[in-house]
Amino acid sequence: MKVPQIFTLFFLGLLLAVRSEVADDEATVEVEEDGEDGGCSSTSRKSEETPPPAETDLKTPQETVPADKAKSNYERTNQMVYLPTGSFMMGTNNPIIPPDGEGPARRVHITGFWYDVYETSNAEFELFVNSTGYKTEAEGFGDSFVIEAFISEKIKEDISQAVASAPWWLPVKGADWRHPFGPDTDLKGIMDHPVLHVSWNDAVAYCQWAQKRLPTEAEFEYACRDGKDDRLFPWGSNMLPKNQHRMNIWQGDFPNTNTAEDGFERTCPVTEFKPQTKLGQKNLIGNAWEWVQDWWQTEHHTGTTKNPVGPKQGTDKTKKGGSYMCIKTHCYRYRCGARSQNTPDSSASNLGFRCASNKLPEYIAKQMEEEKMATAEKARKEEL
Ligand SMILES: *[C@@H]1O[C@H](CO)[C@@H](O)[C@H](O)[C@H]1NC(C)=O
Ligand SMILES: [Ca+2]
Ligand SMILES: [Ca+2]
């Protein structure tokens, strides 16, 4: 987000004393926006920043390994599910954060497509980097945004520049996907967590290598709505059905205390929690924000559309789902209809992605078949 936009949002937020009530068979939700915005929706690079220098140590095309030949040292989490053709109401007529363009509700037809079950993990992203020599934009720029609460005192000493309207975001030198909370942190023990500090451009490159693509915003929301009308979450509007956490967000007093009642102070494994949708997708909302294909816009026509892809051009790309940093008071964006944006070269410690595809890539079909057989074989052996 560019600085002027941050201020616009901030003052709009101040003007807004939104009270929104969403009736539901499961719960009634009351929201008060306190005007402090920015929370889990991170900042963007300023457009005048110089782009990453040309890389000289990249692999030549002959040296790269295609996704169907790549062998991971970790258990794969690249499985996909098929979402059948259908239509749904995108957006809502009861927007909770109106300046984000959450409304109006409009009918959208979606052609059946394949969608990742999980957010892209550090292990999956490392396989891509091992196979291609890819360097992320954050590695090129030499820094990325990290929330202050997770930066060590030693690293913090060297940082003076914060983001005016969201002071908890700091640009940290040496923060990138391998060092998610600063140069003195690494991926030990979190290879199955979502990859962070990937820009929109990085996400596109990964999906392309994997023989996939980024989903459109409409596809994300179609999956998230899971056949229900105007509910907040995939499973309904009750955040804690049967008093159980279904996603990784922030509990406590943001940004100072994090009680982690959902079990996770930062990210959780991409396989964590019960599936959020009937088809089995996990962490669509919460954990890491997810880039989608579309350029950002906040004005939408109410007419019916088929497979909308967003505006032809823009300055920011759209992201969906909210993150482990989201809390109702600061960033009530872990809802299917919620949305936010960043410039396509931006990256942060709460922003990742997952891919979609029109066709199931052959190597994944084969892999999933083998996994199914292995599971059946294991079950058979246990019966004996
Ligand atoms: C990537 O390569 C490194 C170095 O050979 C290896 O240790 C690591 O396990 C590889 N990553 C994956 C996902 O296989
Ligand atoms: Ca949490
Ligand atoms: Ca997510």
TrEMBL record:
Cellular component annotations (GO), alphabetically ordered: endoplasmic reticulum
Cross-referenced InterPro entries: CTDL_fold (IPR016187), Sulfatase_Mod_Factor_Kinase (IPR051043), SUMF_dom (IPR005532), SUMF_sf (IPR042095)
Annotated signal peptide: 1-20
Occurrences of domain Sulfatase-modifying factor enzyme-like (ranges): 77-356
Region ranges (Disordered): 27-71
Composition-biased stretches (Acidic residues): 27-37
Bias-annotated ranges (Basic and acidic residues): 56-71
Keywords associated with the record: Signal
Record keyword rRNA-binding present: no
Pfam families linked: FGE-sulfatase
GO molecular function, one term: formylglycine-generating oxidase activity
Family designation: Belongs to the sulfatase-modifying factor family.
Protein name in the entry: Sulfatase-modifying factor enzyme-like domain-containing protein
Taxonomic classification: Eukaryota, Metazoa, Spiralia, Lophotrochozoa, Annelida
